Batch of 2 targets.
Target 1
Amino acid sequence: MNKEIVVSGIRSTGDLHLGNYFGAMKNYVKMQHEYPCFFFVADYHSLTTHPDPAALKNNVYKVLAENIACGLDPEKVTLYVQSDIPEIPELYLMLNMMAYKGELEKTASFKEKARSQPDNVNAGLLTYPTLMSADILIHKGQYVPVGKDQEQHLEMARNFAQRFNHRYGETFPEPLAFNFGTQLVKIPSLDGSGKMSKSVNENATIYLSDSDDIILRKIKKAKSDQGPAEPNSEMPDYIQNLFLLMELVSAADTVEKFKQDYNECNIRYGDLKIQLADDMVRFVAPIREKTHALKNDTALLQKIMKDGKEKARASASSTLAEARKNMGIHYYC
Ligand code: TYM
C-alpha cells in the first residue's frame, strides 16, 4: 500500500454518466487497492442549484449505490457523505479567509455558471473551489482522481494549501489532480459539442442508468456524416469522439478494424454505431442492474454511510485540530 492519501467526490446532482465513470470512478476503483482512500458524495456542493429536498436525499442514496455498483468496496475505502463531516465546513470557513474575490470570480466554472444561471449567482457558487479544497485538505489529501474539468479547482486547492502553510506553518500537503501519470480525461458528448454532463445535453450523454434501448437510440443519433472522401483524411471532432468512446468499451481489434475502414474510405457509420451500442450496453447493463438492487437497500446504505462517517471524522478532526492550533485558535490550553 502506498502512503499518499487519496480524496475525491461526486456531486449528488443527478444520474452518473460515462464522464463520471471514465473521468473519476474508474480510477477510484483502481486506487482503492493501492492507496488509503476517502471518497464521498458532495451533497453540499449540489446545494448551489437549490435541489428539492426529497430529490436531494434520493440522489445521495443513488450516488452511493452507483459508487458501489461501479466496484468501490466500502470495506476498503472510507465512503461517506460530505455533510456528515462538520469539520469540512469549518475548514471551508478558514480557507475562505485566504481566498480572494478576484481569483474566485476568475474561475472558469464560476464564470460559466454565472452565465448559464444569471438569476442564481450565489456565494456558494463563488466559493465552490474553497469548499472543494476543504474536502481535500481535511484529510491531507495528496492525490485527487478527477476529470479534466476539475483541473483548475485543484490548482486553486494547491494555492490555498500553500497560502495557509506560508502564513501559519506547514500544515497541508499540496494536492495533485491524478490520473496515473497521464492526461486527465474529458469524455465528450455525443453531439460533438462539449462534454457529457449530469444536467445539460441529456440526449448526448450516456448515463449509467440508461436502458439498453436508450443507449442504442442515443448512439444512433450521435452526429456523423457521409464518411471521408479521401483515404487517411483527418477525422472531424465528432467522429474522433465516437472512436474515443469505442476505445473505452470495445475490443482493441474492433477499434482497429473501424479505423482501417475509415482510412480506406469504407467506413459505414451505421455499423460502427451498432457495434458501439452493443459494447456500451455490455459495459453499462451490469452497473445499472447492480445499482438498482442496491439503491433501495436503505439499511445497507445507511450502515455504509455511518461507518464511513466515523472513519472520515476521525481523520478530519485530527487535521482540523492541527489547523486551529496553527492559526492560534486554541484558547484553553
Ligand atoms: P461532479 O459530480 O461534477 O463530477 C464528478 C467527477 O466526474 C468527472 N467528470 C468528467 N470527467 C470526464 N469527462 C466528463 N465529461 C466528466 N464529467 C464529470 C469530474 O471531473 C469529477 O471528477 N467538484 C466536483 C465534486 C467535488 C470534488 C471535491 C472532487 C467536490 N469536492 C473534492 C474532488 C475533490 C464535481 O464537479 O463533481
Target 2
Amino acid sequence: MKKRLIDYLQLKQLKRFDLKAVIFDMDGVLYDSMPAHDRSWQQTMDECGLTHEPGEFYLHEGRLGKATIDIIFQRNLQRDATEEEAQRIYARKTELFQQYNSGATMPGAKEVLDYVKEKGLKPVLVTGSGQPSLLERLDLHFPGAFTPDTMVTAFDVVNGKPHPEPFLKGLIKGGNLKPHQAIVIENAPLGIKAAVEAGIFTIAVNTGPLPDVILREAGASMVFHSMEHLGKALPDIIRLTAEVTV
Ligand code: MG
C-alpha cells in the first residue's frame, strides 16, 4: 500500500501528498446500479436491432450516452447516430433504467463517505450520468455529502470519461486543487483512465464482472473488491498519505 503511494509521488516528482478531497464516481461506487445500466443498454440496443457484445456496457461505463451509442452505431451501421437518434435511444435507455434500478446503495459506501468527512476531507462527485434529480436522490441516501458546488455531472463537461476533463473539473470543485491534493475512487476502466490522465492517485473498487487486470491496466494504483473492503483499508491509506515522503 505504502509502495503504491511512493510510486505515485516519484512518478509525479513530488515530495508528499497534501490530501484535501476524495473524489467519488457514482454508479458502481456509491450505487449498486451497474447491473440495471447493463440490462437497460442491452435491451435498448436489442429493440433497435443493433448488436452488442457480452459485457461491453461495463467496458463503456463512464462514457457520455451519445459516445456509447456512437460506438454501437459505428459497428452496426458504419456511422454516428444523429442527435435525434441518440436522444431517442438514450431516453429509452433511461426509461428502462428507471424501471430496473433498485436504487440500492453500495454496501459500505455511506461508511466510507462518513469517514472521509470525519477526517476533514471534502467529498466530491464526478459522474458521467446525466440523470435528472440526481442531487435529490444523492441527498436522500447520503445526506449532506454533496452539493451542486461539489458535483460534476454530464451537464458540466464537453468531454466525458475517458477524457480527463470531468476529473479536472472535480479538482476545481474540490477547491482549485492540484492532482496530489485528491484521490479518486472509481470502478470502471474508462473512469480510472480519466482520473489517471488528470494526474490523480486512483483507487479502484471492482464491484462488477470485469477482471482486476483490466482496472490495473487502466492505471489503478490499488484494487479493492467492495466499498466495505476499501472502508477497512481507508484509515491506513489516509494516514499514509500524510506520512509518506520521498
Ligand atoms: Mg462507475
